Amino acid sequence: MSRHCLSADEPESVHIEVHLPGRLDPARLRSAFRRALLAHPRALMREVPGRRYRRSLEWELTDRPDGDPVHRAGRGPDALAGARARALSACPPLTLSPPMRLEVVEMDGGSAVPEPSASGVTSGTGTVLVLTVHHTALDAPSGLRVLATTAEQYGGAAGLPVAERIRPGHSGTAPSGTGRAVRARPVRVAPDSRPGPVRARAVGNGMLQADLPVPRGAARDGAIRPWTVNDQLLVAASLMVGRWNVSRGRPAGPVRITMPVDDRPRGSEMPMGNGTRLVEVAMTAEDPRDTDALLGERPEPAAVARLLRTTARRTRALKTAHGAPLGAGASLLTAPLLPVGIRGALTRGARRAAASWTSTALVTNIGRVPYELDFGDAGRATAVWFSAPARMPRGLSVAAASTGGRLHVTLRWSRALLDDAAGAELAGLFEESLSATSLDPAGGDAPGREARTPEAGATAEDIRAAAAPDHAGSPGVPRPRAAPPPDPRPRGARSTDDSGKRPS
Fold first, then answer.
1. What CATH number has the domain bearing residue 133?
2. Are 209 and 408 in contact (CB under 8 A)?
3. Which residues are 210's β-sheet partners?
4. Hey, how many other C-beta atoms are within 10 angstroms of the C-beta on 388?
5. Residue 173: helix, strand or coil by DSSP?
6. Are 262 and 318 within one domain?
7. Which residue segment(s) compose the domain that 445 sits in?
8. How many CB atoms are located within 10 Å of the residue 275 CB?
9. Is residue 246 part of a domain?
C-alpha cells in the first residue's frame, strides 16, 4: 500500500534521534552498525526491479549492505538542523540495502539548539545519532531495535533483558466499546492562513520537538488513575485539534485518531519490518454536553477526566482486537489478483476517494524506551526522539517516547497544511492540552511546569518561533498568533514531572 502511494513531495520517512553525552569513534561505530544489521538480516532488504504487469512486488535479502549507510554530518550550529532536514526530505531508496541511513552529528558547544543532559541542564556537547528509515520497509520500533543492537556491539556488553509488552488475549473481532459505531466523518485540521494556491505548492514536512515532564499518574489523594500516558496523549491531541479548529472559526466535530499497535517482541528476536497494525480511536465524549466544556477557554477537568476514562476503555478494547493491519479493503487491494500497475492505480484512486474519511491525526507512542542504548565510553542515551510521516490528507502526526522520566514529543506536519509558524503554535497548544490531562477532576491545577527548550525542526525559523515566550512568559513555549475570540486555550494550565513507573 505504501509503495503504491509514494510521492517525492512528501517522503515516507521515519526519523529517530538518539542523544548521547560523549563522542563516538567513527570506525568503531561503522563496524558496530554493520554487525547490528547482520544480526537483524531482515533489515538488509531491497526492492527487486520488475515490470508493471507482474502480479506482486518482490523484495530480496542481501548478505551485506549495498553501500556504507553511516555518514558523518559534521559539527557546528547547523549540522543537526541539516540532518533533520534530510531526514524529512531525503528518504533512503528502496532499491539499496538497507533502506536506512545513519548520520552522526557532533555537538561542539556552539550549537543553536542546546541538548538536554541527564541532570536536566542543557549542554551543547555530545553526539546525536539521526537514523532515517524508509517507512515502506521498516518502522520506528525496528529502527530503534537496530540502534539498540548497535549500542551493544559498540559498548561490548549485552543489553539487559527487555521486558515484553503486557497485552490482553486477542479476540477475533473488535469488542464493544471501541467507538467504531461512530460513523460521522472526522474533522480535518484547519489549515493556516496562507492562500490555498500557496499551500498547494508547498512540499515536504515541518517538525518541532519538545522535552516535557511525563504526565502524572495519580490524583492528589494518591489514587491511581485508570488511564495510561498513551490515553493522555490521545486526549491531548484531540483537544489540540478541536481547540485549534474552533480558534480558526471551524465548527467542532468528531476527532478520530489513528494509533499504531505493536504486538511484536522487543528483544533481539524482534521481526524487522513495518510490523504495527493500525487502529482508529474515536475521540468523542459520551455526553454531547462535554464538547463545550472541553473546548472552552479552560477545559473543564471533570469533562477531561470523563473523556480519559472513555478513551482508556476504547484503547483497551482495540488492543485486544485482531484483524488485518490496514483493514479488509487493504487486504483486497494487496491480493495478487491484478498486475501491480493496475493495483497501484486502484490504490491511489481509493486513497483519494477516501480522503475525507481519513482520520484526523496520527499519534504514535513507543512509551518508555525499553533499551539501555549504552554506547560504552560515549555514555547512555539522554533523550530519544522520533517522528512519523505526516502526508496529506491527514497532514499531522504526533510521536512520543519516554527516556529518563522525560517525555520527548515530536509534532510533524505537512507544509501543504501548515507553515512553520502555525506548526510551532500548534505544538504549544498540544503542550497546554497535555497539561490539562494532568488536572484533578476537582479543578486544581498541577504545580508549575519546568522551563524547557523545544527542539527545532528543519529551519532556523522553527527555532525562533519555538523559543519565543508564551502569554505567561514561560520560556520555550511557542507564542500564540492572533486568533478570533474566544480563545479556546487554557490560561495557566501546568503539568508536573512524574517519573514514576506506570504503563505507557
1. 3.30.559.10
2. yes
3. 409
4. 23
5. coil
6. yes
7. 196-365+390-467
8. 16
9. yes
Beta carbons of 200 and 337 less than 8 angstroms apart:
no
Peptide bond into 485 cis (omega under 30): no
CB distance 468 to 479 below 8 Å: yes
Q: What is the pLDDT along the chain (504 residues), one digit of tens a residue?
A: 889 989 888 899 999 999 999 999 999 999 999 999 999 999 999 999 988 788 888 999 999 999 999 999 988 768 999 999 999 999 999 999 999 999 999 987 643 344 444 333 335 679 999 999 999 999 999 999 999 999 999 998 776 777 766 655 544 444 444 444 446 789 999 999 999 999 999 999 999 999 999 987 666 666 778 899 999 999 999 999 999 999 998 988 899 999 999 888 888 889 999 888 889 999 988 888 888 888 877 888 999 999 999 999 999 999 887 766 666 777 788 888 889 889 999 999 988 998 989 999 999 999 999 999 999 999 999 999 999 999 999 999 999 999 988 999 999 999 999 999 999 999 999 999 999 998 766 544 443 333 333 333 433 334 333 433 333 333 233 333 333 333 433 333 333 333 333 444
Strands 70-75, 100-108: parallel, antiparallel or unpaired by DSSP? parallel
CA-only gyration radius of the chain, Å: 22
Look up residue 283 and give its DSSP letter.
Answer: -
Considering the domain boundaries, does residue 490 fall inside one?
Answer: no
Q: How buried is 118 (Cβ within 10 angstroms: 0-12 exposed, 13-18 middle, 19+ buried)?
A: middle
Cα–Cα dist 85/79, whole Å = 10
CA distance 220 to 214: 16
Considering only the C-alpha atoms of the chain, give the largest distance between any 2 of them, rounded to a whole number of Å: 65
Q: Is 12 in contact with 6 (CB distance < 8 Å)?
A: yes
Q: Please tell me the pTM assigned to this model.
A: 0.82
Total domains in the chain come to: 2
Taking Cα atoms as reference points, which of 111, 134, 133, 137 lies closest to residue 124? 111
Distance between CA atoms of 142 and 386, rounded to whole angstroms? 12
Give me the sign of the Cα torsion angle 27, 33, 90, 454: negative
CA angle, residues 408, 103, 84, in degrees to nearest 5:
50
Q: In the structure grid, which three cell numbers stand for residue 41, read together?
A: 538480516
Q: Is residue 484 part of a domain?
A: no
Q: How far apart are CA 391 and CA 10, in angstroms?
A: 6
In a domain, 27, yes or no: yes
| Helix, strand or coil, per DSSP, at residue 345 | helix
DSSP 3-state of 466: helix
- Residue pair 232/215 in contact (Cβ under 8 Å)? The answer is yes
Distances (CA, A) of 250 to 146, 247, 303, 359, 451: 43, 7, 21, 17, 32
